[in-house]
Specification:
Layout: H1 4-8, H2 16-30, H3 39-55, H4 58-65, H5 109-122, E1 129-135, H6 137-142, E2 144-149, E3 155-160, E4 169-172, E5 188-194, E6 200-203, E7 206-213, H7 215-220, E8 222-226, E9 233-237, E10 246-249, E11 264-270, H8 278-285, H9 288-292, H10 295-300
Parallel strand pairs: 1-5, 7-11
Antiparallel strand pairs: 2-3, 4-5, 6-7, 8-9, 10-11
Helix pairs in contact: 2-3
């Protein structure tokens, strides 16, 4: 424990008034309510309050100066805490964890702040706890129920709403850290990470898909199976389709806030066989119209 005189910044010969002035000055500077989120200031404030608990009491100060108790108020050498010797028939500042009994007859507004803040901390709400939850792309479109394993081995059941986007934060009320006293528990804040899907990409409320088709399907048309977030559906490819041709599946996209769903945009991609096909090569070699066709004309028109 630090020497209480050093903590308050006063000499061992300081008067009781000097000690009170030093304490008030430090308390106003370091009080947690005036330094939200500053853990260093909060710890220093605790040291200052502890030092004043000891030096602000004439009897304890005398015993400390005589070496009968240490800086924590514990007896020497028994190491018993001084609060153990407090009697119920006497109002004793060390038995009050607020440490602000000297302000009871003061009109100072800051004294009232100290008293109120101490009562509030006795029933402080629990802090919010942040987690990150990866989900599949399809789950972000259709919704899902997930179970999140916590660092302490516990679990949280999380309901993923349909249409959720990457980075969205879900709040689970009362699932955070416990409060103190009558303080309510904090919340669990779940940031959802949507994993990329090799098939789908999202474009607002619509989703898109690049779908390979064969040369025969492109030339002759036909029915093909198309994946969607809710399962495969049958789709008709028109004759003469080409790479880049886009077809629309109504209502197969993400849910809209205004109601309904976006669409799924299916972009066709003509794919030739990986291995050489002599019959196809022979056909193209004898295809006179193909020799005169210039695809650049379509691109520049």
């Amino acid at each position: 424990m630090k020497n209480p005189y050093d903590v308050l910044g006063v000499a061992p010969t300081a008067s009781a008034a000097d000690i009170q002035i030093a304490y008030r000055k430090l308390a106003k500077k370091l009080h947690p309510d005036l330094n939200p989120g500053d853990r260093a200031a909060e710890e220093k404030f605790k040291e200052v309050a502890g030092a004043y608990d000891l030096l602000g009491d004439a009897e304890k100060r005398k015993r400390f100066d005589n070496g009968e108790i240490d800086a924590s108020g514990a007896e020497r050498p028994q190491q018993r805490f001084y609060r153990d010797f407090a009697t119920s028939d006497r109002s004793h500042r060390y038995t009050d964890t607020s440490g602000f009994a000297d302000f009871t007859d003061s009109e100072d507004a800051f004294a009232e702040l100290l008293r109120r803040s101490e009562r509030a901390r006795a029933n402080r709400p629990g802090r919010d706890v942040h987690y990150r939850l990866p989900i599949d792309f399809v789950e972000s479109i259709t919704g899902a129920s997930k179970r999140l394993t916590l660092p302490d081995g516990g679990t949280l059941d999380v309901k993923i709403p349909a249409g959720l986007v990457d980075g969205q934060v879900l709040r689970l009320r009362g699932k955070g850290a416990r409060g103190t006293g009558k303080g309510r528990p904090g919340d669990a804040l779940i940031e959802v990470e949507v994993r990329p899907d090799r098939r789908f990409t999202r474009e607002g409320d619509d989703i898109s898909l690049e779908l390979p088709i064969s040369l025969s399907e492109a030339v002759l048309g036909g029915k093909i199976r198309v994946p969607t977030p809710t399962g495969e559906v049958t789709m008709t490819v028109p004759k003469g389709s080409n790479t880049g041709t886009t077809m629309r599946l109504k209502g197969k996209g993400a849910p809209r806030r205004s109601g309904g769903h976006g669409d799924e945009l299916v972009r066709l991609k003509v794919v030739l066989p990986k291995s050489p096909d002599p019959a196809l090569e022979a056909f193209v070699s004898n295809w006179e119209k193909g020799k005169t066709f210039n695809p650049l004309e379509d691109r520049t028109s």
